[in-house]
């Protein structure tokens, strides 16, 4: 496995068309719409480019920022994604990136927020709507389509996230799930 060269910035390693992490996802004092483009861009980014992003690693500090944006405690987010909070905190302190597996789960959630934001936008009523906060609440709802389980119970694997994203798409299209 190739080691990452810390001297290379993320921005310089991505082609111009590729979604790139901002320096901050912090939502303090900002309207939800200021970050909606970030989430939609992540959802629309070609999978080939997302694979590269995951391999480079998502900055660990994104976990706390994403939790803040979703209006949930970081512990709840790490538990939902099957991440060790202690490990994430250690990586933040050391200014390290998440592992490939951890990055994949975080990016999957970011893309799901983008999916919800795009669905609302396409419905013709995009304002005001906070897709990140809405998704955080929806993930905790018991759903018959999931055998009486919550979507959050499936967010710790890529396959589970794909299933939850498909369920969202079915709900949007009006298909019985």
Give an overview of the whole structure.
The protein has 177 residues and is mostly helical. The chain is built from 9 helices and no strands. It has helices spanning 10-13, 33-44, 47-56, 62-70, 74-81, 85-93, 100-122, 131-138, 158-173. The termini are far apart. Mean pLDDT is 83; it is low at 1-20 and 26-32.
Taking the alpha carbons of the first and last residues, their distance comes to 41 Å
Order of helices and strands: HHHHHHHHH
Distinct helical segment count: 9
Q: In percent, how much strand structure appears in the residues?
A: under 5%
Unreliable stretches covering 5 or more consecutive residues: 1-20, 26-32
How is the secondary structure organized here?
Blueprint: H1 10-13, H2 33-44, H3 47-56, H4 62-70, H5 74-81, H6 85-93, H7 100-122, H8 131-138, H9 158-173
Which features characterize this protein?
mainly alpha, disordered N terminus, 177 residues
Give a short overview.
With 177 residues, this protein is mostly helical.
């Amino acid at each position: 496995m190739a080691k990452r060269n810390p001297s290379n910035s993320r921005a310089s390693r991505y082609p111009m068309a590729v979604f790139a992490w901002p320096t901050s996802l912090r939502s303090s004092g900002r309207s939800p719409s200021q970050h909606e483009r970030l989430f939609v861009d992540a959802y629309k980014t070609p999978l080939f480019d997302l694979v590269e992003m995951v391999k480079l690693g998502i900055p660990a500090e994104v976990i706390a920022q994403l939790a803040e944006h979703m209006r949930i405690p970081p512990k709840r987010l790490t538990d939902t994604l099957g991440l060790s909070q202690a490990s994430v905190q250690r990586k933040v302190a050391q200014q390290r990136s998440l592992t490939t597996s951890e990055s994949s789960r975080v990016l999957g959630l970011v893309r799901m927020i983008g999916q919800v934001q795009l669905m609302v936008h396409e419905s013709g009523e995009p304002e005001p709507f906070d897709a990140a906060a809405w998704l955080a609440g929806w993930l905790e709802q018991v759903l018959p389509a999931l055998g009486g389980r919550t979507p959050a119970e499936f967010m710790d694997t890529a396959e589970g996230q794909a299933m939850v994203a498909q369920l969202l798409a079915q709900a949007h299209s009006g298909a019985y799930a």
